[in-house]
Amino acid sequence: MVCAFELDGDLIGTIRIVPMGYQLTLTETLLKQLGTAAPAVTPADWEVGRLVLAPEHRSDVEALRYCLSLAIGYACANTHIGSLYASCTHVLSRLYRRFAFTAFARDVPLPGADKLYTLISGSAPRVAQALSERPPAPQA
User: Fewer Cβ neighbours under 10 Å: the N or C end of the chain?
Assistant: First the structure.
């Protein structure tokens, strides 16, 4: 699934959600690096990836929350999703904790590249719930 996000007629972002188990995703490539420590992937597992927001929206956590919520909500309404997986930088993994993702592997190398990734996962219902929750208003 590929979703695009529009705001006031302007395209502000895209995301891709891909079923796992077909060796199509970066996460599956990285899971191989973990060997027997890798979680067992099921037919209900999907990778959330290629989330891109326009530069003026990248630092807006609420825009990220809203876009992820729309995409995950759409995906869950249209297919069975058990767990969601993603690969990201360590800094982004801390951000995704707000949305019920948990880091399960850090500094995983991509074969043939000088990149290290953190692997995260979360139960689709828990992630959807966390995305729908509004953060507390700042105290004055």
Answer: C
